[in-house]
Amino acid sequence: MTVLLFMFCLYSQADLGTQAVFNGETAVPVVKNADKPAPVPQGAIYKVQTDKKVVALTFDISWGEKAPGPILDILEKKGVKKATFFLSGPWTTTHGDIAKRIKTMGYEIGNHGHRHDDFPKYNNQWITEQVGKSEQAIYETTGVKTKLIRTPNGAFDKRVVKHLNSMGYTVVQWNTDSLDWMRPGPDKIVQRVVSRAVPGDIILMHASDSALQTIDALPRIIDGLRQKGYEFMTVSELISGAGVTSKQE
């Protein structure tokens, strides 16, 4: 109890704390150190605990070229300078011009795997190979060495997350799901995101061609969140310097 009380007092001064899912509940401090990189947050990150009105817009891209360009145009027109894109390896290789534009515009780039299949179905070696392929494709195209990963279809289990963490990856899920890939209509996408967003939220959207309605919904999502006082950050900015609370199932 004394140790827990000490840890609570030590980290209660932090503005941000990160929520992850996964046996018991543990607090893992992420301490900035000029000599060492910050430890990889353990578990799968869904949101950050904060009273500040900040959210991270995230976009998964695994195929297509109709949606990414217009979405980047909207972000630029609306002055949204911070967002995180999770790119698959094959898409990055075949759409290098768009991937480079994402990098040039200053947006954060994460890994979305190579083959778009559920990681829990395969062994760790297969996962390592798949992540390595997409990591290499992204690096060769954009020069970015990815440290964040969103697994294909958001599929993971305890073993998968532990393995990805051991590879140096922070596993990023989401707290608010736009469900844009289901094509419920732009109005419903807007209403779902704006009504559900909370401080420290990680918001899931897609910039693949399976979610073309995102193009119509995104300007109103940005306006709606701003009207509520929200500012936009990258996922890494939300996590940076935070104490990580990890729940494991």
Automatic annotation (TrEMBL):
<feature type="domain" description="NodB homology">
    <location>
        <begin position="53"/>
        <end position="233"/>
    </location>
</feature>
<dbReference type="InterPro" id="IPR011330">
    <property type="entry name" value="Glyco_hydro/deAcase_b/a-brl"/>
</dbReference>
<dbReference type="GO" id="GO:0016020">
    <property type="term" value="C:membrane"/>
</dbReference>
<protein>
    <submittedName>
        <fullName>Polysaccharide deacetylase family sporulation protein PdaB</fullName>
    </submittedName>
</protein>
<dbReference type="Pfam" id="PF01522">
    <property type="entry name" value="Polysacc_deac_1"/>
</dbReference>
<dbReference type="InterPro" id="IPR002509">
    <property type="entry name" value="NODB_dom"/>
</dbReference>
<dbReference type="InterPro" id="IPR014132">
    <property type="entry name" value="PdaB-like"/>
</dbReference>
<dbReference type="GO" id="GO:0005975">
    <property type="term" value="P:carbohydrate metabolic process"/>
</dbReference>
<dbReference type="GO" id="GO:0016810">
    <property type="term" value="F:hydrolase activity, acting on carbon-nitrogen (but not peptide) bonds"/>
</dbReference>
<dbReference type="InterPro" id="IPR050248">
    <property type="entry name" value="Polysacc_deacetylase_ArnD"/>
</dbReference>
